[in-house]
């Protein structure tokens, strides 16, 4: 069954399509016990030796159990059950483990490596966030690990390979070759300064080399590929498996995609567990005579694992690490009378009050005309009430500094266009701003979508020079902000977390709401980025709903409104209620939600809300889209 949260990333080029015949249906055990696992395996059995691959990806140091996250002890408890049911079990990780919450960041990832050692991981492919503490620190952590960190397409500038490209493990007479692939996006999806000594080669080329190397040596070939399925990415798991036959299983990550029963492309079973330890992935293989006779995938969530006993040794280790960090993290540093929204699906696709608050803090700290930060750098929400240092660090775990540079109006416009290139789809580079407003026209081509920009309430002057506060990641070209790269820094300030704490303290009790800094509207005639009177009413861009809960909630307390406001914000227009549906449209190949909306005289937002879609591009041929009663027409 595909749930609302499931990402239907059955993509071909730039269009999502769906092929039910490619999805192998597999059921999780009805009861997650040794007996239940064994019974299910017998029911599903192919011929030959049974191998189980357990896998995780994009856990981002969510160490403790807190709905919907299962935490390391529960994940380890699941692994222990499967090992007891089938000794031919390996535990693999596909990257982005060692960064993301204070559990990891306070000790630069060492706590996660200690925990993974105790959990008994077989191998790990580093993700882009494994480089967040710097390349040298990753090498240090790799020496602390009791398991190999592998990658076949990470090379140093002199051609040296810092990690083993693959490993071979023999399990009950079956030889399994496992190789790693890292996303080339790491060059700008960590601070570019962290990877100046390494390069990331073409994953498809590396995969071809690995398959050629392993064929004849092993019975099963497994790729640990931190590539993902995002349509905005050039190098994806889908691209690799379509170009490289011979991979039996591809464990995917990076895009936080949830494939409940895997996806088969070109003979390769792709498996991915979503994010933050919400699921444990299970791939079952049967191998006979050196060939895979059957393979299937499924995932386990907290509901399936409700009766699983957390691993007591792992739980004790996590508790001891947290206890050592407790005094630092529990310090109350501010208060908020409202929830500060940093949900992934929102900060990467629209304005949020936390994005506003953070950029206001950056602009005040640096004393600049404007401030910009990337939505992908905001990693969690903060609940109303007392705000602790731990809350702030969880929101801003990267330790980035605020820097100021001077930019032209044209460069500022280019930066906004970079952030808006995938709108309304999520993008880590999406710009949260202060001291300015802008509008997005999704009908325009990428690079020309942003218009009607104001700075300090005045139209943007493309030839003028503006002072800009941003983070040190973006300032050196991270997230493809190449227009900032090479700019002389006019100031270097404290870290984002320190600036946010200081600014919140200056407000007394925070009570910030979004104020329409970012809006969606058609481009007025002759607009070149400078502000003009819009031809159509402006619709504010609230970010998409999310079911993800904040990683570190705080206790609510009453608060008084803040008196500090950003410069001349635009007033948002209240959103119109979603009309009732009276007809449906059946999605065809080539359709997008935007094109369907245009054809039927409505907007993609109305269709998204009417159909309860969590992402505007998660549609597929054959899907029925409800149409508003006022605009329903016969599908052509």
From TrEMBL:
Residue ranges occupied by any LysM domain in the UniProt entry: 583-627
**Which PROSITE patterns does this one have?**
LYSM
Q: Which Pfam families match?
A: 5_nucleotid_C, LysM, Metallophos
Q: Where is this region: Disordered?
A: 521-578
Signal peptide (residue range): 1-26
Q: Which InterPro entries has this protein been placed in?
A: 5'-Nucleotdase_C (IPR008334), 5'-Nucleotdase_C_sf (IPR036907), 5_nucleotidase/apyrase (IPR006179), Calcineurin-like_PHP (IPR004843), LysM (IPR018392), LysM_dom_sf (IPR036779), Metallo-depent_PP-like (IPR029052)
Q: Would I find Transcription among this entry's keywords?
A: no
Q: Which CDD domains match?
A: LysM (cd00118), MPP_UshA_N_like (cd00845)
UniProt KW keywords:
Hydrolase, Nucleotide-binding, Signal
Give the family, as the similarity comment puts it: Belongs to the 5'-nucleotidase family.
Q: List the protein's name.
A: 5'-nucleotidase C-terminal domain-containing protein
| Organism encoding this protein | Paenibacillus nicotianae
């Amino acid at each position: 069954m595909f749930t609302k949260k499931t990402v239907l990333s059955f993509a071909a080029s730039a269009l999502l399509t769906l092929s039910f015949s490619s999805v192998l249906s597999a059921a999780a055990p009805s009861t997650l016990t040794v007996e239940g696992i064994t019974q299910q395996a017998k029911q599903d059995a192919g011929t030959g030796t049974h191998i189980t691959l357990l896998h995780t990806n994009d856990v981002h140091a969510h160490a403790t159990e807190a709905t919907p996250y299962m935490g390391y002890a529960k994940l380890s408890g699941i692994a222990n059950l499967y090992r007891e049911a089938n000794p031919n079990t390996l535990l693999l990780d596909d990257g982005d483990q060692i960064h993301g919450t204070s559990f990891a960041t306070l000790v630069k990832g060492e706590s996660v490596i200690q925990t993974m050692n105790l959990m008994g991981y077989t191998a790990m492919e580093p993700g882009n966030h494994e480089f967040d503490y710097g390349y040298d620190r990753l090498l240090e952590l790799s020496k602390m690990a009791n398991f190999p960190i592998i990658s076949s397409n990470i090379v140093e500038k002199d051609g040296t390979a810092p990690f083993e490209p693959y490993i071979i493990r023999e399990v009950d007479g079956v030889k399994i070759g496992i190789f790693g692939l890292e996303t080339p996006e790491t060059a700008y999806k960590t601070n570019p300064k962290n990877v100046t000594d390494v390069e990331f080669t073409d994953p498809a080329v590396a995969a071809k080399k690995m398959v050629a190397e392993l064929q004849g040596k092993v019975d099963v070939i497994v790729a640990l590929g931190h590539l993902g399925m995002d349509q905005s990415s050039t190098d994806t798991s889908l691209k690799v498996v379509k170009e490289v036959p011979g991979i039996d299983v591809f464990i995917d990550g990076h895009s936080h995609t949830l494939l409940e029963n895997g996806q088969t492309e070109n003979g390769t079973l792709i498996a991915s567990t979503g994010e933050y330890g919400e699921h444990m992935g299970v791939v079952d293989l049967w191998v006979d005579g050196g060939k895979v006779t059957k393979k299937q995938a499924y995932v386990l969530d907290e509901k399936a694992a409700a009766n699983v006993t957390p691993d007591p040794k792992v739980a004790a280790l996590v508790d001891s690490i947290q206890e050592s960090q407790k005094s630092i993290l529990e310090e109350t540093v501010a208060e908020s009378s409202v929830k500060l929204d940093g949900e992934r699906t929102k900060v990467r696709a629209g304005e949020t009050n936390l994005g506003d608050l953070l950029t206001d803090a950056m602009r005040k700290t640096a004393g600049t005309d404007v401030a910009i930060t990337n939505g992908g750098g905001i990693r969690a929400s903060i609940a109303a009430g007392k705000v602790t240092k731990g809350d702030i660090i969880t929101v801003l775990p990267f330790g980035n500094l605020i820097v100021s540079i001077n930019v032209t109006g044209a460069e500022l416009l280019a930066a906004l266009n970079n952030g808006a290139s995938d709108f309304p789809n999520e993008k880590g580079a999406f710009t949260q701003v202060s001291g300015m407003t802008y509008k997005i026209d999704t009908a325009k081509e990428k690079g020309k979508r942003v218009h009607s920009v104001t700075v300090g309430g005045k139209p943007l002057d493309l030839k003028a020079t503006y002072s800009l506060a941003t983070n040190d990641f973006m300032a050196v070209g991270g997230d493809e902000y190449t227009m900032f790269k090479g700019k002389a820094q006019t100031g270097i300030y404290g870290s984002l977390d320190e600036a946010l704490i200081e600014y919140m303290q200056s407000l007394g009790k925070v009570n910030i709401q979004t104020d329409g800094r970012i809006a969606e509207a058609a481009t007025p005639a002759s607009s070149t980025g400078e502000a003009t009177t819009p031809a159509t009413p402006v619709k504010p861009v609230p970010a998409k709903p999310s079911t993800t809960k904040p990683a570190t909630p705080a206790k609510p307390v009453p608060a008084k409104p803040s008196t500090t406001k950003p410069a001349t914000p635009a007033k948002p227009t209240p959103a119109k209620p979603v009309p009732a549906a009276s007809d449906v449209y059946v999605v065809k190949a080539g359709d997008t939600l935007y094109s369907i909306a245009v054809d039927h005289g409505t907007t993609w937002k109305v269709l998204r809300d009417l159909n309860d879609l969590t992402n505007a591009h998660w549609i597929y041929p054959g899907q029925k889209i409800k149409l508003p009663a006022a605009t329903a027409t016969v599908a052509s």
